[in-house]
Write a structure and sequence with these properties.
- The protein is α/β, with parallel strands linked by helices.
- Among the domains are: about 1-40; about 125-209, Arc Repressor Mutant, subunit A, CATH 1.10.10.10.
- The chain has eight helices and six strands; from the N terminus they run ααβββαβααβααβα.
- The protein has helices at about 5-20, 25-40, 75-85, 100-110, 125-135, 145-155, 160-170, 195-209, and strands at about 45-50, 55-60, 65-70, 90-95, 145, 180.
- The strands form two sheets. The protein has a four-stranded mixed β-sheet, with helices on both faces. Strands 5-6 form a two-stranded parallel ribbon.
- The longest helix has 18 residues, at about 5-20.
């Protein structure tokens, strides 16, 4: 039996044990499952949750980098289903891969971090949406632009509505700061985390800048 087969066998055994074990052993069995998955190359998407002033966020990462940040209002189960369909079905709660991202998010909400420095996996976006989302981190902390201004800055001044769509479908909110883009009239516009969360983020940055 090669290493991959052995690890895959351990993965299956851990799943069986999880079903039969009493609660006192679940944490150790989960650690065994995670280690077996990682060593066998079976862990394609790791995820965890973090508590923040705007509610619980779910973080997900591939080996390439952070692939998803989700608000609870999106439905975590639905988000995981989408990751399984679009990235890989090998998705597992494995917090360690996301420790650095979680630390930086904590620093951000404490007002100590103005820019994120974690690798990103942008496979959930493409085309013009990806172009817009790549631009968003260039908007300075504590500043805002309008959808129209962003359209002009990415070279397509007529694509104001498409910029709004790119912000609304941003798979990495908070880390990729779509909350810094407003309507031309100064209104908030939409936000995947809800307008209360968008207001909270803008207020945090304005006060900590």
């Amino acid at each position: 039996m090669n290493t991959t087969d052995h690890a895959a066998g351990a993965y299956a055994a851990a799943l069986t044990a999880l079903a039969d074990s009493d609660p006192a052993h679940l944490e150790a069995l989960h650690a065994r499952l995670t280690a077996a998955s990682q060593s066998a190359g079976l862990l394609d998407v790791a995820y965890r949750t973090v508590e923040t002033p705007v509610g619980t966020l779910m973080l997900a990462a591939t080996e390439l980098g952070l692939v998803r940040v989700a608000y609870e209002r999106e439905g975590f189960d639905s988000v995981l289903d989408t990751l399984a369909a679009r990235v890989s079905p090998r998705v597992l709660h494995a917090p360690a891969r996301l420790d650095e991202t979680a630390r930086q998010i904590e620093e951000y909400f404490a007002g100590r971090r103005h820019q994120f420095d974690v690798p990103l996996d942008d496979r959930l976006s493409s085309g013009f949406r990806q172009t817009v989302q790549h631009y968003l981190p260039h908007i300075d902390y504590g500043r805002t632009l309008t959808y129209k201004q962003v359209a002009e800055l990415v070279g397509n001044p007529r694509a104001v509505r498409a910029v709004g769509t790119a912000c609304a479908t941003n798979p990495l909110p908070v880390v990729v700061p779509c909350h810094r883009v407003l309507r031309t009239d100064g209104a908030l516009g939409g936000y995947i985390g809800g307008l209360e969360a968008k207001t909270a983020l803008l207020t945090l940055e304005r006060e900590a800048a």
